[in-house]
């Protein structure tokens, strides 16, 4: 039962996202004649209330830093996983954490247009990764929690999970107006990353839950900051660019060109 409880906890962001998507679809269908196309496309940045879910996840993780029921659940979950799968060693989590981000580029190259173009999308992705990296790295060193396998003292929060959920939220933001299933897929991969971190005895349950919160919050914060940052850097300039596949001298790649 504990295992299914942790799966539910990690899938919570995706389920809440699904509910918000359905609600937004109903609202937009009722006011389709009144709302401009740009607003229906969801080009506005996330609102403050959208930070509630990541705040709850991070708060859960912080509670585990004390001697309480949350921390005891960490130990009992580890014991159960190690008892059921003592020799588990599948390190797909090292690659899965990047899958939602790679999907953004794959979909664009396949002709499925995202909310932002390649350049702005890449800038948003890099910004979210930077925020996620700085925040998780700092907290890891401040907290100094020992990993379940005793390898070091940088367990809290899970960086792999934070990275995966940051990428999943980025994929969600870019493609939720195209199909909600793209966002679901991203969150599924992120959840699998977190679960594998526990199965591989690299992280406690609370590390993974907090990592999911840090990842989601980092991307949402990036979407709030980026329009102002872009305006500060570029002013009123605009950039035109093209990105096309190329094959030359038996090597495949991408050709990029841009002008201000």
Automatic annotation (TrEMBL):
<keyword id="KW-1003">Cell membrane</keyword>
<dbReference type="GO" id="GO:0005886">
    <property type="term" value="C:plasma membrane"/>
</dbReference>
<dbReference type="InterPro" id="IPR036938">
    <property type="entry name" value="PAP2/HPO_sf"/>
</dbReference>
<dbReference type="GO" id="GO:0016787">
    <property type="term" value="F:hydrolase activity"/>
</dbReference>
<feature type="domain" description="Phosphatidic acid phosphatase type 2/haloperoxidase">
    <location>
        <begin position="122"/>
        <end position="223"/>
    </location>
</feature>
<keyword id="KW-0472">Membrane</keyword>
<keyword id="KW-0378">Hydrolase</keyword>
<dbReference type="InterPro" id="IPR000326">
    <property type="entry name" value="PAP2/HPO"/>
</dbReference>
<keyword id="KW-0732">Signal</keyword>
<keyword id="KW-0812">Transmembrane</keyword>
<protein>
    <submittedName>
        <fullName>Membrane-associated phospholipid phosphatase</fullName>
    </submittedName>
</protein>
<dbReference type="Pfam" id="PF01569">
    <property type="entry name" value="PAP2"/>
</dbReference>
<keyword id="KW-1133">Transmembrane helix</keyword>
<feature type="signal peptide">
    <location>
        <begin position="1"/>
        <end position="18"/>
    </location>
</feature>
